[in-house]
Amino acid sequence: MIPIADLQRQYLTIKKEIDTAINKVVSGGKYILGNEVAKFEEEFATYCGTKYCVGVANGQEALQISLLALGIGKGDEVITTPFTAVSTSLAITHTGATPVYVDIDSLTYNIDPEKVERNITNKTKAILPVHIYGQMAKMDKIKRIAKKNKLFIIEDCAQAAGASYNDKKAGVYGNLGAFSFYPSKNLGAYGDAGAVVTNSNSLAQKVRSLRDYGQKGRYNHAFQGLNSKLDEIQAAILRVKLRYLDDWNEKRRVNAQKYRRLLRNVTIPVESELARHIYHLYVIRYKHRNKLRKYLLDSNIQTQIHFPIPVYKQKVYSETKFYHLPITEKYCREILSIPIHPELTEKELKYIAEKVSEGAQI
Ligand SMILES: *Cc1c(COP(=O)(O)O)cnc(C)c1O
Fold this sequence. Notes:
The protein has 13 helices and twelve strands. It is α/β, with parallel strands linked by helices. The two termini are 22 Å apart.
C-alpha cells in the first residue's frame, strides 16, 4: 500500500539526527519548558519572519489560545470557513464565541474575502482564515477588510508551515498565526505539538501565560489559562525537522508539477497568483469520488478525504444556525487527497497518476 504520508520512511532519512536529539533531552533531565523549546521558538519565529513564537501542545489549542489572547469569547462572532478540520471551529466555540461560516472560493478552496465582508455584523471580532491544503488565503484582501472594519485576524496555519503569499509566510499577516505539528503535517512532531507566532510583544506574553495555567510569574494566576505546553522532546525533534522543511516543501511542489503533467480526467489544484502552495495535501476532485477511491484502494493506493462533512453539519453543531453553503457542500462530495509526500519515488508517483487517470474513466 502506498500511504498518504510515509512517516517511517521519512524518519529513516534523518534517523541519526533525531535519535541524537531525543537522547540529549532524555539524558539531560529537563522535560518541560527548557532549552529545546526556547530554541525552537526562536528558530521557528525566524523561519516564519515573525518576532515571537510560543510553543503549545497542539494546533487546536494554538487557535484557542490565540482567540483568548485577543479577549474573544461569549457574544463575539468569528468569521471562518466550514471547509476545514473540525478543530478550527472547536477552538472558537471553546472560547464561547460563535463561528460564522462563509463559503469558499471555488478555485482555491480558501475562504472567499467578498463573502467575509458581507457577513460582518456589530458582533464580529475576528476573521479566521484557514490556509487549506498548504495554499494561503487571499491575505491582502482579508487584511484590507480587517483594517477597514477594525477586526482581528487569526490565521490557521496548521497545513501551511512554510507557505507564503506575496513573499510573506503563513502567520505573518494575522495578529496571530496558529500552527499544528501533528505528525502527518508537513512539519510534524512525533506526537501532538503546536505553536503560535505573532509580531506583538504583548500578545506573545499573553499566549505564554495562557499556555501555562495563566501564570504571570510563579503561582500568580492572572487569567483562566490552559495547560498547553510544547514539550522538550517534541521541540528537539521539530528543531531537526525544521532544517529540512524547505527542502521537503520543494519536493512536494515538484511532485505537484509532475501530477499536473500526468493526471487526466480529474480536477487538479489551482495555484492562485500570489500564493506559493506547499502542497501539504494534494487534493483532486472527481464527480464519482467514492468509486475512484475504491479503485485506488484496490490498486494499493491509500487516499483520504479532507474533509467529508462541512463543519456546520457535524452533530456537535446541530443546535446552531442553519447553513447551506453550496460550494463547500459540493466539494465535500468530490474531493480526494492522494499521496504527495516528499519521500514518494518517481515510480510510485507515476503509478498513482496512471491509476487515478484510469480510475476516473470508469
Ligand atoms: C490539523 C489541523 C488542526 C488541528 O491541529 P491539531 O494539532 O490536530 O490540534 C487545525 N486546523 C487545521 C486546518 C488542521 O489541518
